[in-house]
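REQUEST ID: PR-0412
SUBMITTED BY: lab tech R.K.
PRIORITY: routine
TASK: structure prediction, single protein chain
INPUT:
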Amino acid sequence: MLKTMKKPLSKLEQEAKLLECESLYYQVPKPEFIPNRLYHFIRENNPKLIEEAIKTIKKEGLKNAKNPRNTTSFIDRKVQRPLGIYFWGQEIKEEAHIEVDINKLNLKKLYAFPHFIADTILNIDQNYQVPDEFWHKIKKIAVAIPFTEYLGQFQAEYIYTANIPTKLLEIK
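STATUS: complete
OUTPUT:
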């Protein structure tokens, strides 16, 4: 199997990426980015595992992720965001998902994080060589902000830092 070499990301390109990420926090707010509902997706390919997950969620609700897996875990090591239950602010057409009315949650336990930064981190890791210093700079910039302070400056993924009981969830 031929392994492709990652190309180095030049200092100039690194600075441009850092500025692009930092500027997200200062964009003109767009009220349409602030959701009324949050969507949590069950990322499994095996229908039996999806069925088991839904059964558990119906019984126990959604639990705060103490040990995120795979991509989420990788991104969490590169940024400053709390551990929790990860949500989208818009529905993605997948069969198995969970919805929650944002007004039923304790908004002091909800955070917004720029989705663009997560995508940028994955892209850079997959395609480029960068020094640890770059990752340290990203970590200083990439901060989840409390939802109560989020004005719609960026398209966000949302993190809820507490368990959510079944009675607040709609399983689709």
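NOTES: The helical segments are 11-23, 47-60, 70-78, 115-127, 132-141.
REVIEWED BY: pending
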